[in-house]
Specification:
This protein is mainly α. It contains eight helices and three strands; from the N terminus they run H-H-E-H-H-E-H-E-H-H-H. Helix 6 runs antiparallel to helix 7 (134-152), helix 6 runs parallel beside helix 8 (158-179) and helix 7 (134-152) runs antiparallel to helix 8.
Amino acid sequence: KKKKKKKKKKKKKKKKREKRGGSVKQIIMLARVSRSAVARRAAPQALSSVTALRGTCIRRPSPLASGNNRARNFANLVVEAKKGDSVKKRARQAEKRRLYNRARKSACKTRIKNVVACTEELKEKGVKGEEELAPVDALIALAYKEIDRAVSKGVFHKKTAARKKAKVASVRRELAISAGLYTP
């Protein structure tokens, strides 16, 4: 019974290894291919990974690493292993996070642009009192809220957020100074 179990385990391991792309010995054998055999068809620079071997790519050996003449006669083939499930899952998660973060950043930029556009519009019209700055203050509050939310979600660093808030505040301050409502 023990022998049968061992045989089954060996078969399972062998199947897993074949799924992953072969044993270590097979990969090492693929990694050392005579350049002269490859060069008959084309120069190593011109070869693509498809013409060499499927799932491999050719790398030229570095001149520093090749101490002897024999190393120059070989092209290094790097065998790309199949991606595991955990790697694929990480890639999916990273893509989701990237899109989420991009949306948050975009929302912050939009709010800041709205504040800047509103202040420029008011500069052209000319501001006469504090009451006319109310729409700008409302937009600034929304921008601050969006920036703070981005910080809490980990999209922005708190110092980056402080810098963006300062930019928004300076735009409003310039408007108030140009209208004569504020003296620094």
